[in-house]
Amino acid sequence: MNCRSEGSGLAARSLCWGPRAELMLVRDVSFSIVPGDRLVILGPNGAGKSSLLRCLFRAVKPLKGSVEIDGDDLWQLSARDAARKIAVVLQEMPADFPFSVLDVVTMGRIPRRQGMSGWTELDREHVHHALDHLDLAHLATRQFTTLSGGEKQRVLVARALAQEPQIVILDEPTNHLDIRHQLEILTLLRSLGLTIVTTLHDINLAVDFATRIAIMQDGRMTCFGVPSEVLTSLEISRAFSVTATAHSKVDGDAPRFSFSLTA
């Protein structure tokens, strides 16, 4: 089946959020991406990356500013309509989740469900498509709690894909994964044609994946643009307080970076 969807545009307008007004964790963040863009947000621990994501998928309401999907204010949409547009994969994994892999992935279809009706054939097709693409079909009957960390992460990504969203927001989706599955998940996300917003720690993975890069420090977005403009040795060194060295490839591929502590 063809499960491709069209992505949506996403924008933040002077976005501010914190647990209280005197403690802002996101400070005056503005950016705009077009349908199909893949935005990677980089920054040191505590920079405000996860807090920004929580604003973008409506977990917390901005104290100032707005989030817009194709020009519509996110908080003017119903919760169901927002869930049909945005799927989320977080770092936190439920410790006690007494469901099978098939059950968990099927939960991604809840925003598409009509009233109290049962699952349709279309629902089942999307679920099995997601399981196949994340190499999880052989684990469908396994209990989620029995899986490894990497397997659980793949299940949660599959649940997001089954949701049939236009925007996928992920917080460190490659955590707990070996190198092969890191590359497989990012390759899959790249192939979907959806709008992707994700945080990553691995700058070299971000170089290959992103169409747009943002760097955050102290709650502010200090850089935003295409990877070739943002990912420079100077900007990376400044953001992470290290010495970053770019290593260009002779075949014209994007550079790779190595790092050392700043003396």
Give a written overview of the molecule.
Keywords: ATP-binding, Nucleotide-binding, Transport. Pfam families: ABC_tran. It is a single chain. The chain is α/β, with parallel strands linked by helices and about 260 residues long. It has one domain (about 10-230): Rossmann fold, CATH 3.40.50.300. The protein has 9 helices and 12 strands. The chain has helices spanning about 50-55, 80-85, 100-105, 120-135, 150-160, 180-190, 205-210, 225-230, 235-240, and strands at about 10-15, 25-35, 40, 65-70, 70-75, 85-90, 165-170, 195-200, 210-215, 220-225, 240-245, 255-260. The strands form 3 sheets. Strands 6-7-8-3-9-10 form a 6-stranded mixed beta sheet, sandwiched between helices. A 4-stranded antiparallel beta sheet has the order 2-1-4-5, with helices on one face. Strands 11-12 form a two-stranded antiparallel ribbon. The longest helix has 14 residues, at about 150-160. The relative contact order is 0.17.
Number of strands: 12
Any guess at the CATH architecture?
3-Layer(aba) Sandwich
> Shape, please?
globular
Structural class: alpha/beta
Spans of at least 5 consecutive residues with low confidence: none
Under CATH, the topology can be stated as: Rossmann fold
Distance between the termini: 55 Å
Q: What can be said about the biggest beta sheet?
A: 6 strands, mixed
Residue-averaged pLDDT, rounded?
A: 90
Strand order of the largest sheet: 6-7-8-3-9-10
State the assembly state of the protein chains: single chain
The percent range for strand residues is 25-35%
Share of helix among residues? Answer: 25-40%
How much is the radius of gyration in Å? 19 Å
Order of helices and strands: EEEHEEHEHHHEHEHEEHHEE
Family: Belongs to the ABC transporter superfamily.
GO molecular function, one term: ATP hydrolysis activity
Keywords: ATP-binding, Nucleotide-binding, Transport
Protein name: Iron ABC transporter ATP-binding protein
